[in-house]
Write a structure and sequence with these properties.
Blueprint: H1 2-17, E1 31-32, E2 37-39, E3 59-62, E4 67-70, H2 76-89, E5 94-98, H3 110-116, E6 121-124, H4 126-147, E7 162-163, E8 169-172, E9 175-180, E10 192-195, E11 200-204, H5 220-232, E12 237-240, H6 248-270, H7 275-285, H8 295-313
Parallel strand pairs: 4-5, 5-6, 6-7, 11-12
Antiparallel strand pairs: 1-2, 2-3, 3-4, 8-9, 9-10, 10-11
Length: 314
């Protein structure tokens, strides 16, 4: 035990003062939100020079003997920061990493975990693995590097190699992870991860809170269904892909936004209105969401996507 604690202390010293110090995202504290779960609530907004490309909610679950990471962040640099926070909490090793979907702001931190814990197992939906290997990894590496003016340079896209699908279960020591994978939601590659003992669910970007995502890979109906799946679970605490952790209000707020955008877009479309004509009316109906981050940037795009989805069903 003494040797393990000494090794952990040395590793933390190296992380804080060694080569990583200049090549890690600035520190964001990990907050304990339940008995076994810690979450780093990242800044809101798009990846940028200011936020160093870090803007998701990496998290970790501490079991009896090990640590399970959920969405280690957008770059090797973000992953290194996450590891620093884990080592402040525990000297237990990371044994598993679960990536919620293919968008790289959530999983490009994988390589940092592999560097620190070579035996860790990386898990995601099979479709996420396929798309990442086909094209998404390179695309997201480019997005992150360009958005941060090169801060994330050197990130290696370590794609998960172990698939898990809807209804899958992973037991790590005393903790059961139950996977929900409603199809055609945020990206078509999504998993939501229920920590059964803590009655907590990681939502990925199937739900965001106080911040709007791009929905170019999403469907409205599939995303609404994912929200309903989450609300029907036994979870009482929810971790969105972006935004603060909370109770059912987190899921309900995002679901209600999606429903309102879709229903109003369809109504005005059937009244032969053009996008630009219906937008002011829909924006007025969405007043409670006007202060969410990215509202002005995304709401018009969301209206257009809702119409395209409706037209595809006609």
């Amino acid at each position: 035990m003494y040797r393990a604690r000494l090794l952990s202390a040395l590793l933390l010293l190296l992380v804080s003062n060694g080569p990583w110090a200049a090549t890690a995202v600035r520190d964001y504290p990990a907050r304990q939100v339940s008995t076994h779960v810690w979450v780093i609530e990242g800044p809101l907004g798009y990846p940028s020079v200011e936020n160093q490309g870090f803007m998701n909610n990496p998290a970790f679950v501490v079991t009896d003997k090990r640590v399970v990471v959920i969405d280690p962040g957008s770059s090797t640099q973000a992953g290194r920061m996450l590891i620093k926070q884990i080592r402040k909490v525990t000297d237990k090793p990371v044994s598993h990493v679960l990536d919620t979907h293919v968008h790289g702001d959530h999983w490009l931190g994988n390589q940092a975990v592999r560097d620190a814990y070579p035996n860790a197992v990386f898990i995601a939906h099979p479709e996420m693995i396929r798309r990442a290997n086909d094209f998404a990894a390179d695309r997201w590496l480019k997005i992150m590097e360009e958005s941060t003016n090169g801060f994330t340079a050197g990130t290696i896209a370590l794609v998960p190699d172990t698939g898990i699908e809807d209804g899958g279960n992973l037991r790590v020591d005393d903790i059961q992870f139950r996977v929900h994978a409603p199809g055609l939601a945020h990206s078509g590659t999504d998993i939501m991860i229920e920590v059964v003992e803590d009655r907590l669910m990681f939502l990925g970007d199937n739900v965001t809170y106080k911040r709007f995502p791009r929905l170019t890979d999403a469907t409205f109906k599939g995303s609404i269904n994912a929200c309903d799946v989450a609300l029907k679970s036994k979870a009482r605490l929810y971790v969105p892909g972006h935004g603060p952790v909370g109770g059912k209000e987190v899921v309900e707020a995002y679901r209600d936004y999606l429903k309102k955008v879709y229903e109003l877009s369809v109504r005005y479309y059937e009244e032969d209105m053009e996008d630009f004509e219906m937008k002011p009316r829909i924006v007025e109906a969405l007043a409670p969401y006007s202060q969410w981050v990215n509202f002005e940037d995304e709401v018009g795009k969301h209206i257009g996507l809702a119409i395209l989805e409706y037209e595809a069903e006609m």
